[in-house]
Amino acid sequence: MSPHYKIHRIYKKKLAGNTAPVSCSLDAILKYDSLESQYCVYSELVASLLAQTIHVPVAIGVLTKIDAGDAYASIELGSPGLRLPDLLKTQYKRAATQYPDEAAALVMFDIFIGNWDRGGNMKATFVTPHTRMFQGFDHEHALLSVESDPMESIRRLSETDLIVKDHPFYGLLLFLQITKWAHRILETEDAMIHESCEFGRPIGTVTIDMQEALADALCTRKGNLLRLLTGNSSQIALSI
Amino acid sequence: MKSHFHVVQYFDSPSSTKGRNVAVLGFNGWRCDYRAMGVDGDKIEPAYFQSISKKTRDCEWVYREWVNWFDGFAQIESTEQFNKAVDRLKSNKSGFGVSEHGEIEIIQTSANYAAANAEFAATMDKLFKQYVRVPRISPIILFDNQVSSIFSRSEIAGIDGFVFFNEPAIVEMVSEEPNDMVTLEFSHLLSGDRPIGFHTLVLKGAKQKSLSPQAERIALNFNNAVRTGYLQRDRCILLCDQVQKKHRELMDSFSGIATVLDVFDDSTPGRIREMCRLP
Question: Does residue B121 share a domain with residue B16?
């Protein structure tokens, strides 16, 4: 008589060695400071840390080193052989419909950091079942680069200036959807904003003093967000 | 009136100097259009693109997203938006990009709107034929895509009483006798009260020498699954492509061991649903 068997366990076949460290390489866009964009690395790094703190969908990146100094590697979204395309203007409406919460987060985040250059700097999946991906990327024209002079950028951020005059999702989202994210940013503790902006050492040409001043300006700006939103609601939100 | 065209190339790394032409984009002053590898009207076959390089093999879903992007591109009606879309492609150093100085300008001679559009479409077809060499599809890629498609169409994921493993799965069976464990391996598995185990075998393009050991391993797995009581014989499923004459003997060896289903047969998703007793 053959022995009686019972199921011990069922599991997905795993690749050997996946519990131990395995070397891998990821495709990334490497950004570094240049004459055209002198505070690019710092702006990208701070935008990424703030977005992670607030849970805004922007591309993940890391600070790294190249010969010329600090660099920022923004990890690409897609398959190893091919990254997702950047959004076209003809796709903005569909993105706002398919990803309303993510789009609202990005609108409010861009106003918060003064990112006037969102344009098509977004990637999203539209036709891949069960795979929701939506990310903004490229923040080199925000924060210290709102203006060509970083101190002027800090001044503008601390005042009640919308800065973002145009945005792919302006007029496509409900006021309430966007307000939710203004509250989220408003509720972020000052200490967390300071931690996202200050590194205890210069990053490129961004001094410790500039880092502190930017953090102070953002703490002031978060308190102005609701007023900015209400004052510009006809421009920002979908009118019903 | 001048029409503007760009050839989209695929570069598998930023250091690649030679790209592979995959699509043509065009703008005739009031509308955009495209022709892309594996796209024929509403029908998309990413397997052509997947077959052009080792790196593109797993890019099926991203390619479908790019085709969706091309569709979005075809809705552009202004020179400004056309230039912006092309400029973004020019800045791409890997993946899909267009050459910095690769614009093709053709003067269209048609006088009226309808004739100009027809001339534009004909030029797109001509340029696509001229610049984009459509590769032979790798049988393995075509097969893998078809397997994904039949599981998707059979809608067996998420049904009550079953857990679907849409990837290789292991089942460990133990007996009352000490040290007796039988490990079963499946390419896909629907576990539950009456589980269904799947294996795949790509016949097209495979050498007989490599098929025999694969077939033996699959038969052993199914036999062990039945012997240990994990699967009933009629729930051992071998998914393969069309059986040619030269494979007949090999496939006959599965008689009484597994039910053989052709993944390219339209009735296959229905037969899988039937086994799960789905309406």
Answer: yes
User: Are residues B172 and B77 part of one domain?
Assistant: no
For residue B63, give its domain range: 2-131
Between CA A170 and CA A225 the distance in angstroms is 16
Helix (H, G, I), strand (E, B) or coil at B239: strand
Q: Which amino acid is at A189?
A: E
CATH number at residue B176: 3.40.1350
Q: Which residues does chain A have within 8 Å of residue B191's beta carbon, measured at their own beta carbons?
A: 10
How far is residue A106 from each of residues B24, B59, B149, B250, measured CA to CA in Å? 33, 27, 34, 58
Q: Is residue A51 part of a domain?
A: yes
* Partner-chain contact A82 B56, CB within 8 Å: yes
Nearest to A90 among B12, B76, B163 (CB): B76
Domains: count for chain B: 2
Residues B85 and B175 in one domain: no
Q: Provide, as residue numbers in chain B, all residues whose Cβ is less than 8 Å from the Cβ of A80.
A: 55, 58
**What is the residue range of A94's domain?**
28-236
Contacts of B3 (CB under 8 A, 6+ apart): B26, B27, B28, B29, B105, B106, B107, B108, B120, B123
The 10s digit of each residue's pLDDT in A205-231 is: 999 999 999 999 999 999 999 999 999
Q: Are residues B111 and B6 in the same domain?
A: yes
Q: Could you please report the per-residue DSSP string of A45-92?
A: HHHHHHHHHHT--B--EEEEEETTEEEEEEEP-EETTEEPPPPPGGGH
Q: Are strands A82-83 and A122-124 parallel, antiparallel or unpaired?
A: unpaired
Query: What tens digit of pLDDT does each residue of A168-197 get?
Result: 999 999 999 999 999 999 999 999 999 999
The ipTM (two decimal places) reads 0.90
